[in-house]
Design goal:
Distance between the termini of chain A: 65 Å
Structural class of chain A: mainly alpha
Radius of gyration of chain A: 23 Å
Oligomer: homodimer
Strand order of the largest sheet of chain A: 1-2
Largest interface: A-B, 43 and 43 residues
Number of helices of chain A: 6
Helix content of chain A: 55-70%
Number of strands of chain A: 2
Shape of chain A: elongated
Largest sheet of chain A: 2 strands, antiparallel
DNA sequence: TATAACTCCTGTAGTCGCTACAGGATCAAG
DNA sequence: CTTGATCCTGTAGCGACTACAGGAGTTATA
């Protein structure tokens, strides 16, 4: 059993974040030592690591929790997992598209904003009616 | 002079957001009618529209405010504008790259998660030590 | 003129996922 | 015995809104 600092190091989840997950019911409250300090099992730490990986993949915390629950249920519902993952991929693709359009717009706006312009064309465009 | 609802319609900035901008000092407090309602001039509305365009381009609000201030100063500092815009474009490019790597990772993880798998490979990977 | 429906006001709290304290208790090492 | 690390609870802050609650004033219709 490990103290929260060690659990943090082993899982890659920050101490404050671990306590936050507990408060929010993302992970169950761990055992406590007689001195009231939290004690984490290897299993608990595995759960935290699982959550960190989900977060690294950009899943919102609520979905990370769902995936965690799915991963701990007896009959792993691969179907549900895939559905969640695919909808997430779709979101990521959408966001990439949005940002690419943004980049194009910004490039165009700054293109004319080159050397020694008197009136700034970018500002002109932002001001226009 | 226009009431806040009309200013919202004309600028494309939500009513609550307009009041928020005022609270935060992003825009100056407008005139008030004798009945205490806010009154916006065409100029005020132009400012709001300017901010909306900056936000649409993904500038953080603080930078939007800086751009607005630059646009209203006597000698338009095109240099500063360009610097802000270029650093923002850089951020957008970085974010695009991150999301693309994310998408690749998710694609790889879900690739094996195809039809009728018994044990879900995605969960396996998330669980691994 | 009465009433309904709309718009506006202030102030506060919620969103998301942490992160950063404050103020204290406990523990390990020298 | 003291120093410094770690832990505890509880609360507030981040960014940029958004959504109320509870009230007041305005406009349109019957």
């Amino acid at each position: 059993m490990f103290a929260i600092g060690e659990a943090s190091r082993r899982s890659g989840v920050g101490i404050e974040t671990i306590r936050y997950y507990e408060r929010e019911g993302i992970v169950p409250a761990p055992e406590r030592a007689p001195n009231n300090r939290r004690l984490y099992s290897a299993n608990d730490i595995g759960r935290l690591r699982f959550l960190r990986r989900c977060r690294d993949l950009g899943f919102p915390l609520a979905h990370a929790k769902t995936l965690l629950d799915l991963s701990e249920s007896r009959h792993e519902d691969c179907q549900s997992v895939r559905k969640l993952a695919e909808s997430h991929i779709e979101n990521v693709r959408t966001k990439i598209g949005e940002l690419q359009r943004l980049e194009a717009a910004l490039n165009e706006l700054t293109a004319n904003c080159a050397v020694g312009n008197v009136a700034c064309p970018l500002l002109r465009r932002l001001q226009s009616d």
